[in-house]
Specification:
- The complex is a heterodimer.
- By secondary structure, chain A is an all-beta fold.
- Chain A has no helices and 11 strands.
- Helix content of chain B is 0%, strand content 55%.
- Classes of the chains: A mainly beta, B mainly beta.
């Protein structure tokens, strides 16, 4: 089944404790992206990647890192999480970065930083 | 970055009613997309629009790409309970920009 998977689905952590949220897609997509969703703010892009070893900042990249060592994986890293990073995070992928094809979203990761 | 104004923020309607929501921007877009998000899940694409003036239907859903390339609307006809969710517009130009969503609540 074609899908985007994220792990973990739920995470509660404390300020300053490094964490990684994994994202994997099995559709051989070139483009992958991370979003955060907050009430009243909709979906905001954190980072995106057009291909292996190519990553770029989205609208809200501060406090996040990403890597794209393999086509299928695009982990989101929070080196020193803070409470304002409490949010619902979505990974998405699409065949190309043109936007003329569908972006498939993962099921989301709900992160709480205490 | 580019901004999208999506309205209304929420809608409380009776089952069977038609629904209309729209997105506007001061920027132009090459593609307009409409997504639906259900609780506990990621957004799922409903309709994609690629050309100014394009009108596209998907069952009871109809969406149009505004002629100025700065707006789009989504209509849902004869709403049913499973239409409940958050609907997002998204415009693509240099990356994808999302609206803040329209919460649709249906009263039986």
């Amino acid at each position: 089944e074609a899908q985007v998977t994220q792990n973990p689905r739920y995470l509660i952590t404390v300020t300053g404790k490094k964490l990684t949220v994994t994202c994997s897609q099995n559709m051989n997509h070139e483009y992958m992206s991370w979003y955060r969703q907050d009430p009243g703010l909709g979906l905001r892009q954190i980072y995106y990647s057009m291909n292996v070893e190519v990553t770029d900042k989205g609208d809200v990249p501060e406090g996040y890192k990403v890597s794209r060592k393999e086509k299928r994986n695009f982990p989101l890293i929070l080196e020193s999480p803070s409470p304002n990073q409490t949010s619902l995070y979505f990974c998405a992928s699409s065949l190309w970065a043109s936007g003329r094809d569908e972006q498939f979203f993962g099921p989301g990761t709900r992160l709480t930083v205490l | 970055g580019q901004q999208l104004n999506q309205s209304p923020q929420s809608m409380f309607i009776q089952e069977g009613e038609d629904v209309s929501m729209n997105c506007t921007s001061s920027s132009i877009f090459n593609t307009w997309l409409w997504y639906k998000q259900e609780p506990g899940e990621g957004p799922v694409l409903l309709i994609a629009l690629y050309k100014a003036g394009e009108l596209t239907s998907n069952g009871r859903l109809t969406a149009q790409f505004g002629i100025t390339r700065k707006d789009s609307f989504l209509n849902i006809s004869a709403s049913i309970p499973s239409d409940v969710g958050i609907y997002f517009c998204a415009g693509q130009y240099d990356g994808l920009t999302f609206g803040k969503g329209t919460h649709l609540i249906i009263q039986p």
